[in-house]
Amino acid sequence: MGAVTVADGVVFGDGKLGLIAGPCVIESRDHCLRMAEAVAKISRRTRTPCVFKASYYKGNRTSVSSYRGPGPDEGLRILADVRDAVGLPVLTDVHEPAQAAAAAECVDVLQVPAFLCRQTDLVLAAAHTGRPVNLKKGQFLAPWDMSRVVEKAASTGNEALLVTERGTSFGYNNLVVDFKGLSYLAGLGYPVVLDVTHSLQLPAGQGESSGGEPEFAEPLAAAGVAAGVDVLFLEVHDNPPAALSDASTQLPLERLEPLLEKLIRIQAAARDHGLLR
């Protein structure tokens, strides 16, 4: 599997467990900076290659009244400030082809949301920026169907791609992670990301918003690392019940560091026993 350099000094897929972490959405400039500084400190202490994640304007909301973020102009300014002030690479999602170029000027990694992964123009626009692109597998796709999404992105000449598993629709208002799918995704030749927190969503499960089962975050992350994923995607928040988006699934910030330490040990044990590719 080829490694991907997502920013200076941050490489995913080289055998070391990587991390994408941050709040679901920008709630304020101050909160975003505080979260990024906390994630950066944890990354340094655990020696984990890390990218900070936050959305600036959410496109997929259950209700028209759901919080969406500060919007494109203010949101991208905040993400640029975070990158410059904290020194972590930054990832954000884009929802329309026209958003890609502006976002690429302010962040290091662009993300194509799961529900939009078949939108050809969006995939091409993100890849054409030359920035690394995280392609999230749609909840409605089989793992092998992601080969066509990757093919679209790679057709631009951009090979700095990540492929993310975030659960598959399992009946109504539920998702399940098929661990066989991680091997299919790995066969595409790019680093594989396991989006732990979104895989625990119960989409629209609370009527006006999505529910979730955050109590399963740690076992799911551990299973993913033992199965050989390259990167973990964890939305974290210093006060999840008060979060303005995805309050039911975000990992409490204080649990991130002990979880990472545990996962690093799991990865080392799996490698020592010849379980990892």
Q: How many strands?
A: 15
- Low-pLDDT runs of 5+ residues are none
Total helical segments = 9
Residue-averaged pLDDT:
93
Query: What proportion of the residues is helical, as a percent range?
Result: 25-40%
The coarse silhouette is: globular
- Measure the end-to-end span: 9 Å
Structure class: alpha/beta
Strand content: 15-25%
Output the radius of gyration. Answer: 17 Å
Topology pattern, helix = H, strand = E: EEEHEHEHEHEHEEEHEHEEHEEH
Described by strand count, sense and barrel closure, the largest sheet is: 8 strands, parallel, barrel
Which strands sit side by side, in order, in the main sheet? 3-4-5-6-7-8-11-14
Please characterize this protein's 3D structure.
- The protein has 277 residues and is an alpha/beta fold.
- The protein is built from 9 helices and 15 strands.
- The chain has an 8-stranded parallel β-barrel, surrounded by 7 helices. It has a two-stranded antiparallel sheet with strand order 1-2.
- Helix 1 packs parallel to helix 2 and helix 4 crosses helix 5.
- The model has no long low-confidence stretch (mean pLDDT 93).
Task: Please name the defining characteristics of this protein.
277 residues; alpha/beta; 8-stranded parallel beta barrel; two-stranded antiparallel sheet; 9 helices; 15 strands; 36% helix; globular
Brief overview, please?
The chain is an alpha/beta fold and 277 residues long.
Protein topology:
Elements: E1 4-7, E2 10-12, E3 18-22, H1 29-46, E4 50-53, H2 72-86, E5 90-93, H3 97-104, E6 109-112, H4 120-128, E7 133-136, H5 146-154, E8 161-165, E9 168-169, E10 175-176, H6 179-186, E11 192-195, H7 196-199, E12 201-202, E13 211-212, H8 217-227, E14 231-237, E15 251-252, H9 256-272
Parallel strand pairs: 3-4, 3-14, 4-5, 5-6, 6-7, 7-8, 8-11, 11-14, 14-15
Antiparallel strand pairs: 1-2, 9-10, 12-13
Helix pairs in contact: 1-2, 3-4, 4-5, 8-9
